[in-house]
Amino acid sequence: MSAIRVTGLLPLEGEISIQGSKNAVLPMMAAALLHRGLTVLTNVPKIRDVACMTRILEHLGCACICRGSSIFMDAREVQRTEIPEEYVRSMRSSIIVLGALLGRLGEGSCCYPGGCLIGARPIDLHLAALKSLGAQICEEEGIIKAVTRTKKGLEGTEILFAYPSVGATEQALLAAVLADGVTVIRGAAMEPEISQLCHFLNNMGAVICGTGTSTLMIQGVQCLKDSTFRVEGDRIAAGTYGAAVMAAGGDITLKGIRPSSLRLPLMLLEQAGAEVDCAEEGRTLSATGIGWEQEGRIRIRREGRPGPLNLKTGPYPEFPTDLQSPFMAFLAAARGTSRIEERVFEERFGTVGELVKMGASIRIEEKTAVICGKYPLRGACVKAADLRGGAALVVGALAAEGETIIKDCGHIERGYEDICRDLSALGAGIGWIGE
Ligand SMILES: CC(=O)N[C@H]1[C@@H](OP(=O)(O)OP(=O)(O)OC[C@H]2O[C@@H](n3ccc(=O)[nH]c3=O)[C@H](O)[C@@H]2O)O[C@H](CO)[C@@H](O)[C@@H]1O
Ligand SMILES: C=C(OP(=O)(O)O)C(=O)O
To answer: Using CA atoms, how far apart are residues 260 and 278, in angstroms rounded to an integer?
Structure first.
């Protein structure tokens, strides 16, 4: 796997564009299977998970053509219903394909999904939602097999999630779009990526109301239409670069991102001593030209050491768990003691040991990490254990004296187009080893 070398203590300065969102584009690609025709996505990030989803679609019979940052998906000929194990094991979002296959062909099968090792990550809520839409599900030797109970296909129903799972909400949405009748999803996740998925599906001809709320109503339709949609900027990549400038100091501007999707993380950066300015631009996101929300730019300036923070992760609009590790990394170099409570994934402190190798002082008390800031951290040889944990090591290395080598960076490439390109454009001493 690839490795990254970082020479720390250089301030960041300049302007970069933010890649399209990983967690938004993956369910949209799965949803392309629902339409017997062409679906085009623009602003698609060039990341490993997108390559993996492309392979899955191609295996199922959907022709995919990538041109620049666009992907053209022609799902007229989709016939296969087994999602290959190799891809399902390497990516969490692969499980969403099951709902799309049930909606389109009335059956689908796959093994349990992989993704970042940050907790048990069961799929009980996914399967319960599919069952209540009329799927029969059984498991044979670790393979989940789902078929619709009647020839009519899936049927609209009421689904109540006891926890607002992002993936299970996406699963239910994809399965409900072509179901017979109305589906109501209560307790739905409200993450911006869910809202984007609803806008994208409506742009394809689906009928979904309640976007942005915890109750989604889907009127099933018989077929969808050809469509084009622009994927929104990645709020987690933008938040990671926000954490990077907190660690390194400097003055950066992030373009192509909707500031409101990062409201709480940006407020926390201000609380830790940054100056944050947001601006909206006259560009609308939806391909139909309906200006439902706007992309903009975020400027973040930080002089001196950041101050400490107390934060808790939680479902949107609470603090995103995906930014927990990058924030922990800059807080490891802050003035004073911070506390982070992880309330979404039970094993998401896997990067603490590597940060400690870099001189950080962090102790875990059940679900809470207590971080006593030290500056500077020191360069070390460390390993990325997961996607955001790997990005956090890059953030920590920016506040470290000397050189840091981060191994196993394939995890980072699952979600960041090119973290070295972005940070070196801002003046960081960073590069892929071997380049
Ligand atoms: C590809 C993608 O979009 N990944 C994101 C998605 O993951 P993902 O969709 O896996 O996250 P969920 O919202 O489903 O998981 C949240 C919590 O619910 C639990 N749970 C989930 C499903 C289920 O059937 N049963 C169950 O108990 C999980 O174990 C976890 O503790 O949302 C997470 C929470 O914002 C993010 O960190 C991930 O980056
Ligand atoms: C946890 C993440 O990804 P996944 O759900 O794909 O494992 C993430 O993006 O931080």
So the answer is: 9
User: Do residue 15 and residue 27 come from a single domain?
Assistant: no
Q: What pLDDT, in 10s, does the model give residues 33-72?
A: 999 999 999 999 999 999 999 999 999 999 999 999 999 9
Mutate to test the pocket of ligand 1, among 21, 163, 264 (most ligand atoms within 8 A of CB): 163
- Residue that is last in its domain, among 208, 230, 252: 230
Neighbour order of strands in the sheet with 429-432: 381-383, 403-407, 4-7, 429-432
Domain co-membership, 102 together with 218: yes
- Could you report the per-residue pLDDT of 148-169, keeping only the tens digit for each? 988 889 999 999 999 999 999 9
**Are residues 123 and 213 located together in one domain of the fold?**
yes
Domains of the chain: total? 2
Which is catalytic among the residues 62, 111, 116, 409?
116
Atom of ligand 1 nearest to the CA of 165: 13
209 part of the active site? no
Pair 173, 264 in one domain: no
* 28 C-beta closer than 6 A to ligand 2: no
Q: Is the domain of 246 the same as that of 344? A: yes
Q: Is the CB of 92 under 6 A from ligand 2?
A: yes
Partnered with residue 148 across adjacent β-strands are 135
**Number of the ligand 2 atom closest to the C-alpha atom of 115:** 7
Q: Minimal CA–CA distance to 102: which of 61, 59, 141, 150?
A: 150
Question: Can you give the residue range of the structural domain that contains 420?
Answer: 4-19+233-432
If you average pLDDT over every residue of the chain, what do you get? 94
Whether complex ipTM tops 0.90: yes
Q: Ligand 2 in contact with 52 (CB < 6 A)? A: no
Q: Are residues 327 and 258 in the same domain?
A: yes
Tokens for 276? 């944050």
Pair 181, 127 in one domain: yes
Q: For residue 293, what pLDDT is reported? A: 59
Of 230, 261, 295, the one marking the end of a domain is 230
- 324 and 215 share a domain? no
CATH number of the domain to which 297 belongs: 3.65.10.10
* Closest ligand 2 atom number to CA of residue 92: 6
Instruction: Cite the annotated binding site for UDP-N-acetyl-alpha-D-glucosamine by residue number.
Output: 92, 121-125, 322, 344
Helices within 140-297 (DSSP H only): 166-176, 192-203, 235-248, 263-271
Query: What confidence tens digit (pLDDT) does each residue in 260-295 have?
Result: 899 999 999 999 999 999 886 554 443 333 333 578
Half-sphere exposure of 293 (CA within 13 A, CB side): 17
Sequence-ordered list of residues with C-beta below 8 angstroms from that of 226, at least 6 positions apart, any chain: 35, 37, 38, 39
The rounded Å distance from CA 274 to ligand 2 centre is 27
